[in-house]
# Entry
Amino acid sequence: MNSLISSSRSQKLNEGNQSTVSTFILLAFSEYPDLQVPLFLGFVIMYTVTVLENLGMILIIRINPKLHTPMYFFLSHLSFVDFCYTSAIAPKLLEVLLVEDKSISFIGCIAQYFLGCTFVITEMFMLAVMAYDRFVAVCNPLLYTVTMSHQLCALLVAATYVWAGIFSSTLTYILLQLSYCGPNVINHFCCEYSALLSVSCSDIAFSQMACLVISMFNEACCLVIIIASYVFIVITVLKIPTKGALRKAFSTCASHLTAIGIGHGIVLLLYCVLKSRSSLFLVKIATVFHSLVIPMLNPLIYSLRNKDVKDTVKKLVYLKFIFHSM
# Structure
C-alpha cells in the first residue's frame, strides 16, 4: 500500500480546471492483505445472491397476477434500483480485491459515482413513495385502487428517477469542475463523493457545502413524507374500534418500516457519525452494508411474510424440477 501511495505522489501538481490525473488507485481493504481472499469470496456470494434475489423478485411480480398491485409495482422498481446500485459498486470492488492493479480510470470513477448517487437517491424516494402508498391503503382502503391508479404510480416512479438524475448530475458536474493533480490514491473501494474531494487539489469548500445541502434536502424531504404518512396511518388505526386493527395495519406496513429503518439508519450513520479518519474502516464496512447487504435483504424483507410471493417461488421451483426430470 505504501508503494502505491508513494508512486501516486510522484505526479506533478498542476493548477486549472482540467484534471491532470487520468487514473485513481482504490486501496479498498489493502491494509488487511490476509483478508483479501475471504473478503472476495464473501462479497462474491453476497453479490450473486443480491442479483438472483432482485431479478427473481421482478420476475415473480411480473408472472403472478395477484402481485399486479401498486405496492408490488413500486417494489419491482425498488428491486431494479437495488440491482443497479449493487452492480455499479460490486464488480469493481471484487476486481480490486482480486488483482494487483487496483486502478480505475478518471471517467470510470466519475461514472461510478454518478450511477451510485442516482440509484441511492432513487431508492430513498422510492421508499417515500411506498410510504405514501401504505398511507392510502390504510387510510382510504375503499378508494385505494382509484387513488393509486396506474397513471399515478407510473408518474411517481418516473418522478423519483428524474429527481435523482437531476441531483446526481448536479453533484457530478461539481466534481468535474475540480482539479485532480495528485496524489491519486483513494482510501476506499468505490468513488464516493468525499473520497473524490480528498484527492482534489482545488478549493473544496463549495463542493462540500453543495453536497451537504443536497443530501440534507433529500433526506428531509423523504423523512417528512414517510413520517407524515405513518402519523396519519397511526391516527387512522387508533380511531378504528375493530379489535386487531392495529396489528393488521402493522402487518401491512412492517416490511416497509423495516426497510426504511435499515436504509436510513445506515445513511445517517455514514453522513452524521462516521466522519473522522479513525473511522475509515467503519466507513468502508457501513458502505459495504449499504451497497451490498441492504439490496440483498430488501427482497427477503418484502417476501418472507407474503404468501403470494412464497407460493410463486414454490411453483417456479416445482416447474424447474419437472423440466429437469423430463
